[in-house]
Amino acid sequence: MLACKLSVTSTMTSALRVLRSNPVVVMPGHVQRCLSTQTDGEDRITKVLKDKFPLASSLKVVDISGGCGAMYEIHIESSEFKGKRTVQQHQLVNQALKDEIQGMHGLRIFTEVPKQ
């Protein structure tokens, strides 16, 4: 986490330039980037989850740590969760990401079964 803080501090000037050209929507407890590309961490986690949950009808991975990869928010909707309690669904996601989780500070998981 210290490395994350140092990285954020050292790139503050360039980040402000990006923010001027790419506005950020801020809501209590949630930051949404208005950039069109994902971070490397978001891409990596998305690939792992797509491989593990091929029937997922919706998948969104967001780095909510400001881009340093310390914390992610995952929204995944899959029929593979059908018949499982929420805690079991989250355990499946945690198991799929066991290698990636080791380097994270936190993870928010939101799972859902498609309504059909």
TrEMBL record:
Highest taxon of source: Eukaryota
Keywords: Mitochondrion
Subcellular location: Mitochondrion
Record InterPro entries: BolA (IPR002634), BolA-like_sf (IPR036065), Mt_Fe-S_assembly_factor (IPR052275)
Keyword Mitochondrion (UniProt): yes
Cellular component aspect of the GO annotation: mitochondrial matrix
Family under the similarity heading: Belongs to the BolA/IbaG family.
Summary of the function given for this chain in its UniProt record: Acts as a mitochondrial iron-sulfur (Fe-S) cluster assembly factor that facilitates (Fe-S) cluster insertion into a subset of mitochondrial proteins. Probably acts together with NFU1.
Subunit record text: Interacts with NFU1.
Protein known as: BolA-like protein 3
Species, as recorded: Parambassis ranga
Name of the encoding gene: bola3
